Amino acid sequence: MPQMIFVNLPVKDIETSKGFFGKLGFSFNPQFSDERTGCLVISDTIFAMLLEEPRFKDFTKKEIADASKSTEVILALSAESREKVDELVDTALASGGSPANDTQDLGFMYGRSFQDPDHHIWEVIWMDPSAAEAGGQA
After folding, report:
1. Angle CA 116–120–123, to nearest 5
2. Residues 6+ away with beta carbon under 8 Å from 102
3. How far apart are CA 138 and CA 132, in angstroms?
4. Sign of torsion, CA 15 16 20 21?
5. Sign of dihedral through CA atoms 97, 100, 103, 108?
6. What number is the average pLDDT over the span 37-45?
7. Which of 34, 45, 55, 133 would bridge 4 by S-S if both were Cys, CB 3.0 to 4.6 A apart?
């Protein structure tokens, strides 16, 4: 069985988060979702557990970071093309997300980023497959 990752993220309102990521084309696993939690399916092995802040607090003794003031994590997703990068980020921005960082265009690698409604930073990156095989040199 391949190793899986579950990234846990605090959110203010689970329905807002579900609506936002649904508009981006993502689905939720109902088996691991309820009225305070959403299991965002990114791939067969990658999931983001979106937990309303009081539920998230059940898993930590630390304070929850205010992502509008500090960066606690940057989540990077690969895309199959430059066009798919633009499509996902443009949809995020049109669906309630906000800009995060400047576009990165190195020719062999292209990336853009956005903040979700809870200010978590998501980067979407495409890399030329031949550049990846050459160790990032195109």
Report:
1. 85
2. none
3. 8
4. negative
5. negative
6. 97
7. 45
Q: By three-state DSSP, how is residue 90 classified?
A: helix
Secondary element (H or E) of residue 84: helix 82-94
Task: Give the angle 73-20-85 at the CA atoms, nearest 5°.
Answer: 65
117 CB-near residues (< 8 Å, 6+ apart) = 11, 12, 13, 16, 17, 20, 96, 97
How far apart CA 47 and CA 103 sit, in angstroms, is 25
105/129: higher pLDDT: 105
Q: Which two tokens stand for residue 70?
A: 């500090």
Q: What would the 3-class secondary structure string for 37-79 be? A: EEEEECCCCEEEEEEEHHHHHCCCCCCCCCCCCCCCCEEEEEC
Reported as a single tens digit per residue, the pLDDT across 44-99 is: 999 999 999 999 999 999 999 999 999 989 999 999 999 999 999 999 999 999 99
Q: Which residues contact 44 (CB under 8 A, 6 or more apart)?
A: 2
